[in-house]
Amino acid sequence: MDAPRLTTILDLVRWIGWAQRKAGEDWIRSREITMEQGFALGYLVQNPGAIQRDLAEITRTSPASVSSLLQGLERRGLVERRADSADVRSKRAYATPTGAELIAGFEAAMTAVDDTILAPLDQTERATLHALLTKVTAELPQPTR
Amino acid sequence: MDAPRLTTILDLVRWIGWAQRKAGEDWIRSREITMEQGFALGYLVQNPGAIQRDLAEITRTSPASVSSLLQGLERRGLVERRADSADVRSKRAYATPTGAELIAGFEAAMTAVDDTILAPLDQTERATLHALLTKVTAELPQPTR
DNA sequence: CTCTAATGGTTAGAGCTCTAACTGTCAAAG
DNA sequence: CTTTGACAGTTAGAGCTCTAACCATTAGAG
């Protein structure tokens, strides 16, 4: 039958992604940073000395983008970059104490956001959803992390 | 037992949304326009005379954003705007023949993209996924269309 | 050892998004 | 009929993203 669907699966997917972003922004707004900066900072706290290329990969973005993002964070003293002694091309990035302090709780807040969004689903449904989405992403390019 | 999940549901959701965007960009790049312009143009072909506020709503964006987006399209002669005769505040937007011609096939291409992404799932699984996502979005703010 | 290709980053330029402040128009109350 | 508030849209300023062009450094081939 396949009646024309008013809201496709991909519409719903984009919508949910958008909602997560918006919810996250509400938490982060007080810190005077952006979601992207929050993700980067959080990642650097978990992975001190990460190289820019890695950051570009896990955020599914470009090296150019990471470059300007980190420049902004560095300008504000939230991040530090030092060239790798073994390979000067690579720049290792670290969250400064200020940066780490600023982002403390971000991870937790995002987890809370996720939980709020998924609240309508019970554990079984979440497992099903996770399985289905994994099946889809398995055939996609680019790893998530 | 709730072992720490390496890739959360929301991670997967964002990933899929990103993949859709990228795939769409591949199609659209030859037209020298952006995804956003493509969506707007496509919407205006389907809904001639739409008002900017509506466009902002369905794209889950701001009036300011629509304003500049349409300015770009208008500058290139792909869109026309005329004030509503009954309410001069409102500006009704129309895709020009050139604009409509440019975007012809976009909708179909996007549907094809969606189908490719969802290829790993059979009809039953898609139905389940759609149901689960709908359950989630039912509790979210902002309608999709 | 040298030449070439790959690799990590950066810059420039353009588009999108947001917030905040502002214009002009319409509508409703008094 | 005026005043006040809601509403549609715009502009300015800043951040993010992308592509394309470009540096510097490193690795590999010969």
UniProtKB/TrEMBL annotation, chains A, B:
Domain HTH marR-type: 1-138
GO biological process, one term: response to stress
Record-annotated membrane-spanning stretches: none
SUPFAM superfamilies: Winged helix' DNA-binding domain (SSF46785)
InterPro entries: HTH_MarR-typ, MarR/SlyA-like, WH-like_DNA-bd_sf, WH_DNA-bd_sf
Gene3D superfamilies from the UniProt entry: Winged helix-like DNA-binding domain superfamily/Winged helix DNA-binding domain
Gene Ontology molecular function terms on file: DNA-binding transcription factor activity
SMART domains linked to this entry: HTH_MARR
Name of protein: HTH marR-type domain-containing protein
